[in-house]
Amino acid sequence: MIETPAFVSLFFAQLGEEQGLRLFDALPDTRLFIKDAHGVYMYASRGMYLAHGFTDEKAILGRTDHEFIPAYLAEHYTRDDRQVLAGGEIWGRVEMVMRHPRCHDWYVTSKIPLRSKEGRIVGLAGVSRDLEKTARFASPFTQLVPALEFIRDQFASPFDLEALAQRAGMSERGFQRHFKKAFQITPTAYLRQFRLGKACQMLLESDKTIVSIAMETGFTDHSHLAREFTRSIGSTPGAYRTRYRQEVG
To answer: Is the dihedral angle over the CA atoms 153, 157, 159, 161 positive or is it negative?
Structure first.
């Protein structure tokens, strides 16, 4: 591990509580949050607490996701948190989040562990960005917008890397490299996450059979959806629907 230069450590040692985090309040489509090792919020940017219907950061501090976020979403977040608190990192997770109470949107989330001076993991930091708005206005996302819009509208279609690359005006190799740089995941993994998110939404908001949902979200059959769902989400589609359907109402 590369050691932090002494002058950098001395600089941050001089700072008080204000370390520039409030600058994230100037980015309405970006949410920054910090949690301790138990998943309790230690910091939430303005975009974060406003999205959940709060007018003050203090309404979130000291609470966990399960205390103010629907369980079917909180389970996803806390599962990723456990991975990060065990020393892993998550980059470019495409997931459904609350834009404001009872309304959801698609965001891209990254999380990293936070370590004490002794190297012990004491929490995590995460940032979530509005997927479409970030892609439309921020490099290196901008050039990918046509491909992202195609995935959004045609996510159930067979995966065609060449067609996606052409929409972005790139070669297949260049597209994959550019995509990985932007999202830290491959186009294939991105599409799989998007499909799973849509499957979750349909399981909770419709009465369609799991077979129908599998076909409508781009999976080859019920078994394919169940396999990917269990691997990524930790339960079968049926168990997920049974557990959270009543909450969604």
So the answer is: negative
d(CA 127, CA 31): 5
CB of 204 closer than 8 Å to CB of 72: yes
How far from the centroid of its chain's Cα atoms is residue 94's Cα? 5
- The residues facing 109 across adjacent strands are 93, 128
How do residues 81-137 score in pLDDT, each as one tens digit? 999 999 999 987 777 775 544 445 678 889 999 998 888 999 999 998 877 666 555
- ∠243-191-198 over CA atoms, to 5°? 30
Q: Exposed, middle or buried, 56 (CB in 10 Å: 0-12/13-18/19+)?
A: exposed
Question: Cα–Cα distance between 63 and 108 in angstroms, integer?
Answer: 23
CA distances (Å), 110 to each of 30, 32, 33, 77, 152, in order?
A: 11, 10, 11, 11, 20
Q: Is the pTM of this model over 0.70?
A: no
Written out in words, the top-level CATH class of the domain with range 136-248 is mainly alpha
Q: Do domains 6-133 and 136-248 have the same CATH topology?
A: no
Domain residue spans of the chain: 6-133, 136-248
Amino acid code (one letter) for 35:
K
CATH superfamily for domain 6-133: PAS domain (3.30.450.20)
DSSP letter for each residue of 34-77: EEETTS-EEEE-HHHHHHTT-SSGGGTTT--GGGTS-HHHHHHH
pLDDT digits (tens, 9 = 90+) for 127-146: 988 776 665 555 556 788 88
Residue 28 has pLDDT above 80, yes or no: no
